[in-house]
Amino acid sequence: MNYIVRKIWDLPQSQHTAPEVYARRSWHRRQVLTAMGVAAGWGVMSHLVGCAQKPNAEEVKKAGAVEAPSETATAKGVYPSTRNPSYEYGRAETAQNEAAIYTNFYEFTGPSSKASYKFVGDFKPTPWKVTVDGLCDKPREFDLDDLYKEFSFEERAYRHRCVETWAMCVPWTGFPLADLIKLVGPKANAKYVRFETFNDSEQAPYIGVDNTFPWPYTEGLTIAEATNELPFLATGIYGEPLPKQHGAPVRLVLPWKYGFKCIKSIIKITLTDQQPPTFWNTVAPREYTFEANVDPSVPHPRWSQRTEWMLGTMERFPTVKYNGYGDWVAKMYG
Ligand code: MTE
Asked: What pTM value is reported for the model?
């Protein structure tokens, strides 16, 4: 083991190569010129005219936009769906644009940027298929309309807590994962559920650049967790179809676990009798466990988990065990 060459995920943010370098050659040229001082005047000018401000909500929406909801979704009234009153944030809702500009989607940016909305232009989330297979009686392939037809959609107001300590409160549109598991009929020996993201470097630039990561992004749950009422398969957010950077067209939402478990842009769900290897647990097992339940008393090896801060307002709150969802999930952990 070579301890001198640091892995990319150990590098401080300042030493990462910006994802723009991979995604946009013209941007890279500008960076080089700026570094040489040639474009310094241009930089000062653009700062003065406001280019350094927060990105405009309309531009962000346009960058992450997906196809309009299908006729089936419209006929079923999926967007917006009725909010399920059982779930409340207990805090202010995060502004839509704040959530849209601060995302983790390593396939597009790697570790160096939260602005994945800038790099999702080539991503094509329609048409899309989700295969459900493994230890079940009725393995199936679902396209988006199948999901709209088969399941009962609702809106859930959930808190989200990233392992990096940022948090948000957002309304997801979707249906319980438990309903999908029930539909395919899990066999008695199905003990875990494995999830897999698409893996196409033509559409997601960072995949092609960094082969130190174990692509495709994968995640897993125990069957008890997967059939709990909280796990939610979301196709929408803020009453609209998911923008690309939030994991279009379908992603997992697990409000009592650290956000890295909430795998985006799912293509495959497999019921299995073995605990599946997962992306972050493979990359850094000491830092990211398979279970990854939110817990203020267990620090990340490199930072405390005692508090969290909200996207947009930066307001700080004490972290709560299971992110405050203990009434639903504590029973699973003895
Ligand atoms: N899913 C995939 N496929 N790739 C990713 O990089 N990042 C995870 C999770 N799902 C990630 C992913 C992390 S670390 C978090 S915190 C959440 O997505 C963030 O969801 P958001 O960006 O929509 O807020």
From this structure: 0.88
